[in-house]
Amino acid sequence: MLETRLVTRRFKFNNRVLPDPNPRLSPAQVKDLYAAQFPELASAAIEGPELKSGQQFYGFARQVGTKG
Predict the structure, then answer these.
(1) Calpha distance 67→51 (Å, rounded)
(2) What is the pTM of this model?
(3) How far apart are CA 43 and CA 11, in angstroms?
(4) Do residues 12 and 56 make contact, with C-beta atoms less than 8 angstroms apart?
(5) Tens-digit pLDDT profile for residues 13-62
(6) Whether 21 contacts 29, CB under 8 Å
């Protein structure tokens, strides 16, 4: 017998767990939405998803680079 479970998305950034503002948005769209609040997300990479305890976690990792 198959069992269906609802998986909740969460987004991790800077040791914070951010809720999913809208399940219909792609992870990239969620990143863009949160970039208004966290400007460093504008150039962040998306990692994941990783499934833990029935939740799907995506990470936003700041890109490390050099200027010039």
Answers:
(1) 35
(2) 0.81
(3) 16
(4) no
(5) 999 999 999 999 999 999 999 999 999 999 999 999 999 988 999 999 98
(6) no
